[in-house]
Amino acid sequence: MRIPFRKMHGLGNDFVVIDAREAPVPMTTRRAAALADRRTGIGCDQLIVLEPSDVADVRMRIFNNDGSEVEACGNASRAVGLLLGGTQSIETLGGLIRSEAGADGVSVDMGSPRFDWQEIPLSYAMDTLELPVGWEELENPVGVNVGNPHAVFFVPDADAVELERLGPIIENDPVFPERVNVNVASLVGPDHLKLRVWERGAGLTRACGTGACATAVAAMRRKLTGRKVRVDLPGGPLTIAWPEGGTIEMTGPAALSFEGSFEDADFPA
Ligand SMILES: N[C@@H](CCC[C@H](N)C(=O)O)C(=O)O
């Protein structure tokens, strides 16, 4: 039996999207990692499985390239919003979000950020506005959870950071019991940030939507920017707004690359 999939991306952060709303497609860590493998599978940063939901229009399950199932993915939320069109409520492990497809791309209400140390989560109590931790030149990040955990480091030049080397060390540090997504950001103009992300379970990606949300919110909390910012990632820009007392709105593009199918038995669950 062949299982159809779509290959999609948001600013080059790429996904294999499997629509399992009509017919179930069993997914496990082993199967997700095999499908996501760029040499022996289809290849993607995240594998997305769409399922029926009791509380929303659709349930979106998210698996990283290493097969780990996670709570949130900003770029995949826009991709799914584009695929389904109009306004959609999407159930994720990180909470309910809402997408709206429009002429300028897809906007997603990503919900409210959380800053309590237990909610990041961290291993012990500390001030999440300036975590008293450091790895070489990367020091005192902001801790924030936007459905998934992020550490945001503000540095003079995000391009100068050796993120391939430091990213995995920070991702797996015991201070982050559920691992962490590692963001390095620079302020490049008024309300304008440059960002690179080492993603938990996926490594360096061309863009990370939740990373852009976490970084924008961190910059706003540190009073580095106003409440609406442009975030430039290697794959292109996103706009993030977080009005006082409101939820995070992320706007940007998404695209379909191609469609295909794989043999069920070749990728055992
Ligand atoms: N690429 C994503 C984030 C995917 C999940 C992340 N790697 C995690 O483990 O939390 C995005 O666009 O937000």
TrEMBL record:
Where can this protein be found? Answer: Cytoplasm
- EC assignment: 5.1.1.7
Which keywords accompany this UniProt record?
Amino-acid biosynthesis, Cytoplasm, Isomerase, Lysine biosynthesis
The UniProt entry, under InterPro entries, shows: DAP_epimerase_AS (IPR018510), DAP_epimerase_DapF (IPR001653)
Instruction: State the top-level EC class.
Output: isomerase
Question: For site (Could be important to modulate the pK values of the two catalytic cysteine residues), what residue positions does UniProt give?
Answer: H150, E199
Q: Which SUPFAM superfamilies match?
A: Diaminopimelate epimerase-like (SSF54506)
Task: Tell whether rRNA-binding is among the UniProt keywords.
Answer: no
- Its main localization is cytoplasm
Q: Where does substrate bind?
A: N13, Q46, N64, G74, N75, N148, N181, E199, R200, G209, T210
Pfam families reported in the protein's UniProt record: DAP_epimerase
Q: In which pathway does it act?
A: Amino-acid biosynthesis; L-lysine biosynthesis via DAP pathway; DL-2,6-diaminopimelate from LL-2,6-diaminopimelate: step 1/1
Q: Catalyzes what?
A: (2S,6S)-2,6-diaminopimelate = meso-2,6-diaminopimelate
Example of a GO cellular component annotation carried by this entry: cytosol
Q: Which GO terms describe its biological process?
A: lysine biosynthetic process via diaminopimelate
Task: Kindly indicate whether the keyword Oxidoreductase belongs to this entry.
Answer: no
Catalytic positions are: C73 (proton donor), C73, C208 (proton acceptor)
Q: What molecular function terms (GO) are annotated for this protein?
A: diaminopimelate epimerase activity
| UniProt family annotation | Belongs to the diaminopimelate epimerase family.
Give the quaternary structure.
Homodimer.
> What is the protein's known function?
Catalyzes the stereoinversion of LL-2,6-diaminopimelate (L,L-DAP) to meso-diaminopimelate (meso-DAP), a precursor of L-lysine and an essential component of the bacterial peptidoglycan.
Q: What is this protein called?
A: Diaminopimelate epimerase
Q: Which source organism does the UniProt entry give?
A: Novosphingobium taihuense
Please name the taxonomic classification of the source.
Bacteria, Pseudomonadati, Pseudomonadota, Alphaproteobacteria, Sphingomonadales
